[in-house]
């Protein structure tokens, strides 16, 4: 079929032509926006899930909802090697501008607080390294510039929230990769959300991160379990996965046979990124409409080869040889019937189906190593975001089907 008319869009954070399976979460967020704007109590939102399930897409869709509701919004992506101050200040600069407060002096005063918050991050920076904020008002003195990020963030969001309340609107701060915030910044975000909620100010933080993000927040502040509304972003059910394929195809006067849709679900397991990646290749391979199960079978090796390079391989290349050995051991342990050790026999079970997570002790036993000797590799993989630990003593891949890829690519990069 005509590749120019191919409707599918595999990409990092790129919105698919049909955002299927997320209606309930988007509808709930519309309610949240309206309640906050009316001064009703609501919690900030945290989206969690594996790589490739569409967290960033959903985060962006929620931001668009806030913009349509007249809110001021800003977005940032957390990085483990970066303080929260500068990216948050840049996001709030955008949000205040979007809000469009009619009193310019009052808006400038708040922007001065935003600037002071950011500049407190670089008291000893060399002139050439100083950050240019783009905020053309003087920094406020004595507000959000104490040097204690928890105190400063509370003061900052209080000022920004007051500005939004004057407009009868709200401020939305959208944070991607939220699990990468540093410990002090996580604590500050939790404390600020707590204070803002108690004050009834219209400020929402919407974060997206890996499945262990709730544990990161809870370790920082015990009350975070009640502070956020947690929403798991998972793979699509069969009906939603079909809609993600069928609706865009229909716009281009194309169809899928029922057998083709079943074959697509079998190879993608409903993971949104895989649906788009396989859909794009299948469209290009198919000679005509309707797309058949044979088309899917012919296209599958090409789609898998592209995923092996871009989605899986690029991540594996970030790991050292020792870390790759650990990853491959995890992949093997995940499908070992009855487990590798007595410790995990009760959780792995008799079937050889791949497990969502594995015991660190089982990985050590598989490698015939002491668990302590593997700690450096495991810790490095955690920091690189290739694995996560949802509970003590257990680890899992952050990327769906990564174990299957590692087992099939045993002769890959070393």
From TrEMBL:
Record protein name field: AAA ATPase-like protein
Q: Where is the Cytochrome c domain?
A: 165-331
Q: State the species of origin.
A: Lapillicoccus jejuensis
Region: Disordered; residue ranges are 1-23
Pfam families according to UniProt: AAA_16
Among InterPro entries, the record links this protein to: AAA_16, Cyt_c-like_dom, P-loop_NTPase
Keywords, A to Z? Heme, Iron, Metal-binding
Query: Which GO molecular function, any one, fits this protein according to its record?
Result: metal ion binding
Does Transmembrane helix count among this protein's keywords? no
Organism's domain of life?
A: Bacteria
